[in-house]
Amino acid sequence: MNAERPNGRGTADEVADLARRAGQLAGWAARTGFALGRKLPGVETAERGVRQVERQLLTELRRRLDEVDDPYHAALTAASAMNRPSVPGTVEATVTIVPARDNAHEPLRAAMAELLNHSIGFGRDRAREYFYAIILRQLTPDEARILSALSDGSPFPAVDVVERTGIGGTGRVALRNASTVGKAAGVSLPDQVPGYVTRLIGLGLVDLDEEVPSLETQYEILLTDETVRDAEKHVKRAKYVRRTIHISRLGAQFWQACDPSLG
User: Fold this and answer.
1) Strands (E), the chain
2) Out of 3.30.1330.60, 3.30.110.190, 3.40.50.12280, 3.30.43.10, which CATH number does the structure's domain 137-258 have?
3) Which pTM value belongs to this model?
């Protein structure tokens, strides 16, 4: 087994390599339109293979990211080391944790202390890298595909399905942020696109804007989507609130830093 480099550089280098490999695979699929399921002999089987490799790489990347610069993980590891019985003949690492009245919260306090320590030593570039790594760790593979599809700045239609009230207003929302961007990105779970888009908006990577009339045809296509049609069944009278989504300023900066085609 290869020994890790001092200060965790071995793990950090492995993360960078996994990110590069996963990114190159996703970037290639996006550029060639491979994930859109072209009706050619053998394509379906080959696509399943690509998806499997992509999932394996991203799963391993997520595990590595969880271990790198995660203050809560570090705090739990330290607490575990404190409570682990000593083994004769071994040298135990010394870990100092300030006693707290509520031991159940000690990992949280240690994690906060770790973050505050980071804030002292981080420069602008390192702080930005850490911030982007935290965002990256929260993304699903489908969400990464959606962000890739939005990365050129193009807007995509989005629709909310709401209940129309008797005086022409709107009531409860049956479906929020349905969009055609999922099909364009070739996501694995098309029915989850509204949730993906909502999460990306919540992370600040995607902005929600007003309706764009030039996308009328795409809006009409979106209204025939199975997810939208199913939401219609849950309201007495459906009303469609049209909007658009596009990559945000933060999303563009994040993509610029993570874009696999630039590696």
Assistant:
1) 156-164, 170-179, 206-210, 238-247
2) 3.30.110.190
3) 0.65
